[in-house]
Amino acid sequence: TTLGPLAFAFALTALKEGFDDLGRHREDKKFNQRKYTVVRNNKEIKIASEDIIVGDIVRLTANEEVPCDLFLLLSSDADEGAAYIQTATIDGEIDLKLKVCVPQVLEMYKQQDELSVSDIGSFPGEIQVDTPNP
Predict the structure, then answer these.
(1) Spatial separation of the C-alpha atoms in residues 104 and 108, rounded to whole Å
(2) Of the candidates 34, 98, 27, which has an alpha carbon nearest to the alpha carbon of residue 60?
(3) In the chain, helix, strand, coil percent, each to 5?
(4) What's the pLDDT tens digit per position in 78-118?
(5) Which of 65, 71, 74, 126 is deepest in the core (most CB within 10 A)?
(6) What is the distance of C-alpha 31 from the center of its chain?
(7) Distances from the Cα of 35 to the Cα of 10, 39, 98, angstroms
């Protein structure tokens, strides 16, 4: 006698989860289609966020959503090389987090008034990181 209500509750929960998954899928697809400016082969091009690959230099403007994990090379704050980033979609925190450029990179470009696309595209650096823990 309890099998019917229990099966109904499981079916209802599964249906709700299915609708939630469908909504997340639609939001992900919308986000993955957003266009961002990247520098490839010394040219600025607009591509969908899903097409950003490791090694791309992504140019973001104020209040633009960060499409992926990025390494901050330069900021419009020429003195400090600072950028404030909200990570609410990643960790749920709505506070702005301070991120700063690597001092050596900031010093390299500090003397220049404005950077050209070829300056940015020919960045002479290499980033080495540890492999993640399994």
Answers:
(1) 6
(2) 34
(3) 35, 20, 45
(4) 678 888 888 777 777 888 888 888 777 777 777 666 666 66
(5) 74
(6) 11
(7) 40, 13, 25
pLDDT (0 to 100) of residue 109: 73
Please tell me whether the overall predicted TM-score, pTM, comes out greater than 0.85 for this model.
no
State the Cα–Cα distance between residues 73 and 108, nearest whole angstrom. 11
Number of other CB atoms surrounding residue 56 within 10 Å: 16
CA dist 45 and 43 (Å) reads 6
Q: Which residue has the tokens 């419009």?
A: 76
Structure tokens at 40: 């490839």
Burial 64-84 (b: 16+ CB within 10 A, else e): eebbeeeebbbbeeeeebebe
Q: What distance in Å separates the CA atoms of residue 113 and residue 24, rounded to the nearest whole number? A: 43
- Please give the angle made by the CA atoms of 91, 97 and 99, to the nearest 5 degrees: 120
Residues comprising the chain, all counted: 134
